[in-house]
Specification:
The chain is an alpha/beta fold. It folds into two domains: about 5-175 and about 360-380, 3-Layer(aba) Sandwich (Rossmann fold); about 190-350, Rossmann fold, CATH 3.40.50. Helix content is about 40%, strand content about 15%. It has helices at about 15-30, 50-55, 75-95, 110-120, 140-150, 155-165, 180-185, 190-200, 220-235, 250-265, 275-285, 295-305, 330-340, 345-350, 365-375, 380; strands spanning about 5-10, 35-40, 65, 100-105, 125, 150-155, 175, 205-210, 240-245, 270-275, 290-295, 310, 325-330. The chain has a seven-stranded parallel sheet with strand order 3-2-1-4-5-6-7, with helices on both faces. Helix 1 (about 15-30) packs across helix 15 and helix 9 crosses helix 13 (about 330-340). The longest helix is centred in the first third of the chain and has 22 residues, at about 75-95.
Length: about 400
């Protein structure tokens, strides 16, 4: 192990682990670096499928676990979880002594890890910075991690410009595209019959893949919106609905409880999967007719799969969109109309063009990321960052527009 760069990956949810998989695998197989893995957050909870077992079954050694979930479904509970996560991560980083910490995205688990690493003077590499999701607290977490990080891998040129606008020196900011898109081209997805065996039922038509998370930074009622979605789905009586559970955000447990009620209400045509895993989820997307809800996967992965998306409410407000994404308000009539438009021949034709602002020039995004992680001057990353000033005319202070 001597001389190999220790690259520590922090993962807190099933979704973000799926996006990190190929990058972690490249590091594991590299002769130049040593992979370290810390599992935290929902990975450790049976309520979310205890997906730490998935990480291990994929052949990765989990070097440490950091338990930070609290028995609360509130904003204050999340604040407490961040504190617990920061304490746990500090102890882990002190023991494992990584050369670089790698975090992806915008969740509070990543903020906790980044805070500990920053204070401990361990350089941070951040994946998927520069994006905007005004309806979620993730917006603030994401930009906070950007300022704590020393190295950035962004998913589009627009996001690269935004990270630089936050004061990050351009040489630090690499546009590699969305790392999760590599799964679409490298995973062997289920054929229809195999997927039907996976979920234990046949698929009627149309097939709707649904994921709804709380819009944590606005007043959108998560259970009320889920009820509006259910009312809209009553208007598609022949549809098979494949629903995934919510994430560990304030309001997520209430969503999952209502989903279990809806599973009974829809009498066998709604399948609720606690954790499909990346292959199972993308297989569901492959065989669906429309992606419904407010998950980032509807905006990032679905366009590259050729699927139209109905994006509901404010959670993803501000995020870049492909032309195949249809936005609608969080009420039953608007959702029903958007589903009807998404299922139309015109929308299907538009989606089949697979236009995607997150698509990279090449398919091996993980190779680009790992090449930089292994070749970057680690001493330079440990030096204090400068602030890169962007020259532009500022409007005068005043009232919000």
């Amino acid at each position: 192990m001597n001389g190999r760069r220790r690259l520590l990956f922090v993962t807190g949810t099933r979704a973000e682990y799926g996006l990190l998989y190929w990058t972690m695998k490249r590091v594991l197989e590299s002769e130049y670096s040593q992979l370290q893995v810390v599992a935290t957050g929902a990975h450790l909870s049976p309520a979310f499928g205890r997906t730490i077992d998935v990480i291990r079954n994929d052949g990765f050694h989990v070097d440490a676990e950091v338990d930070m979930l609290v028995d609360s479904d509130s904003h204050w509970g999340t604040a407490c979880a961040i504190g617990l996560g920061t304490i746990g991560m500090a102890n882990v980083l002190r023991t494992l002594a990584p050369d670089l910490v790698v975090v992806l995205g915008d969740r509070y688990e990543m903020l906790a890890a980044a805070q500990a690493a920053y204070v401990g003077r361990v350089p941070i590499a951040h994946i998927h910075g520069g994006e905007v999701t005004r309806g979620s607290l993730d917006e603030g977490f994401r930009h906070a991690v950007t300022k704590l990080a020393s190295l950035h891998f962004v998913s589009s040129e627009e996001h690269r410009r935004r990270v630089i606008q936050l004061g990050e020196t351009p040489w630090r900011v690499h546009n590699v595209g969305a790392v999760g898109l590599e799964n679409i081209f490298r995973l062997e997805l289920d054929e229809l019959e195999e997927f039907e065996r996976r979920i234990g039922r046949g698929l009627g038509r149309p097939v709707i893949l649904m994921t709804y998370h709380p819009a944590t930074a606005c007043d959108e009622d998560p259970v009320g919106t889920l009820d509006a979605i259910a009312s809209a789905l009553d208007g598609v009586p022949d549809a098979t609905i494949i629903a995934t559970g919510s994430n560990a955000d304030p309001g997520g447990r209430a969503i999952d409880a209502r989903l279990r009620e809806l599973e009974k209400r829809f009498r066998g045509r709604l399948y609720l999967g606690t954790s499909l895993g990346q292959r199972g989820y993308l297989s569901a997307m492959r065989h669906c007719d429309v992606v419904l809800g407010n998950s980032s996967s509807g905006l990032i992965e679905a366009p590259s799969m050729g699927k139209p998306t109905v994006n509901i409410g404010q959670r993803q407000a501000g995020r870049q969109r492909a032309p195949s994404v249809l936005d609608c308000a969080a009420d039953a009539n608007a959702i029903r109309d958007a589903i009807e438009r998404a299922l139309s021949p015109a929308s299907r034709q538009l989606a089949s063009r697979r236009e995607n602002p997150y698509a990279s020039a090449g398919l091996e995004v993980s190779r680009h990321v790992v090449d930089v992680l292994e070749s970057i001057d680690s001493a330079e990353l440990r030096r204090p960052k400068g602030f890169f000033d962007v020259s532009f005319d500022l409007p005068a202070a005043g009232r919000p527009e």
